[in-house]
Amino acid sequence: MSEKDYRAPDLALRGPEHVRVYQETDGAEGYEWNGVPTLLLTVTGRRTGAEHTSALIFGRHGDDLLVVASKGGAPRHPLWYVNLQADPRARVQVRDETVVVEARTAGAAEKPELWRIMTDIWPNYDVYQSRTDREIPLVVLSPV
Q: How far is the C-alpha of 140 from the C-alpha of 136, rounded, in Å?
C-alpha cells in the first residue's frame, strides 16, 4: 500500500479526551472509533512509575488481544510500547471489562497472520509501515 491508499480518520475524539470519554462511559462512547473497536491500554512508565493510558485499535486472536505500535509510521516507537518493553504487565479495558495482561511482541513466524488480522480491521497499518524504516511491532496481550 502507498499514501494514495491512506484513509484519513476522523480525529474529533483522540488522545486524553478519547481515554476520558471511554472511561467515564465504560466504553459506551469511544469503544468504536472510525468504525473500528478500541481498547484502553494502561502501562507503567519506565522512568516515573506513573500509569499512562492510551486508546488503541485492537483485534482478537483466540483469547489474546492484538495492538499495533504504529504511531502513524513515525520513526520512533510509541511510548506505550517502550514502556511495555520495560514492564510487560499492563491493564486493558474493553468496554466495561478490565483485565490484567502480559504483553509480548509477535515473533517473525506469527506476525504475518496477526498483521493480516489487524490490517483487515485498519488497512492504514500497511501505509504506516511504508512510511518508516523501523519494523512496526505487533503486540500480543495475553490475559494473566
A: 13
Query: What whole-number distance in Å separates Cα of residue 73 and Cα of residue 133?
Result: 9
- Single out the residue of 57, 48, 137 nearest to residue 87, CA to CA: 48
pTM of the model: 0.93
Integer distance in angstroms from the first to the last C-alpha of the chain? 36
Do residues 36 and 28 lie in contact, with contact meaning Cβ atoms separated by under 8 Å?
no
- How is residue 73 annotated by DSSP? G
Give the integer Cα–Cα distance in Å for 127 and 28: 29
Largest CA distance in the chain: 41
pLDDT, tens digit (0-9, with 9 covering 90-100), for 28-63: 999 999 999 999 999 999 999 999 999 999 999 999
Q: Which residues contact 6 (CB under 8 A, 6 or more apart)?
A: 124, 127
